[in-house]
């Protein structure tokens, strides 16, 4: 462990596997206290167990980001456990759909937007409110996709959601830079 993030508190959505799990683990190894939020309780618990077994400090928060109340709760639980929120990584998303626009399932589209776009907005809403209340800045990283700049065929719902994530990131960045809160996206 190095102490690059010692004393920092990080919330990672979608932290049970993939990019989210790798991100949560990296922050913990570098000294941060980490809240792992995910809808997958078993995999999320395994991520937290692996982090804590390595001597780092993390908690699990069950989160269905299609629900705004979940976003509020995960920030509240993070702050209740660790006292503050310095950084958030919004990595929760559904896997890409595999249909042409002509064959798109609008129920799949609605669920994709609810989790992969609306969930990012709800998360940012409560993360930013917490950081503004602390008054000492913060950092938010939203996980978008290369599909946000170079769409691939057969992924209309996913592509639309990830374009939206980039738009939310730009808006959040402009609004919050004067308050010392950086908002970025990775594609």
Report the radius of gyration as a whole number of Å: 16 Å
User: What's the number of extended β-strand segments?
Assistant: 6
- Adjacency order of strands in the biggest sheet: 3-2-1-4-5-6
Mean pLDDT: 97
Structural class: alpha/beta
The major β-sheet equals:
6 strands, parallel
> How helix-rich are the residues, as a percent range?
40-55%
SSE string, helix = H, strand = E? EHEHEHEHEHE
Shape: globular
The first-to-last residue Cα distance is 27 Å
Q: In DSSP terms, counting alpha (H) and pi (I) runs of 4 or more, how many helices?
A: 5
Strand content: 15-25%
Low-confidence stretches: none
What attributes characterize this protein structure?
187 residues, alpha/beta, six-stranded parallel sheet, 6 strands, 48% helix
What would your notes on this structure say?
α1 (18-29) runs parallel beside α2 (41-53). The model has no long low-confidence stretch (mean pLDDT 97). With 187 residues, the protein is an alpha/beta fold. It has helices spanning 18-29, 41-53, 68-82, 106-134, 156-176; strands at residues 9-13, 33-38, 58-62, 87-90, 138-143, 181-186. The chain has a six-stranded parallel sheet with strand order 3-2-1-4-5-6, with helices on both faces. It contains five helices and six strands. 48% of the residues lie in helices and 17% in strands.
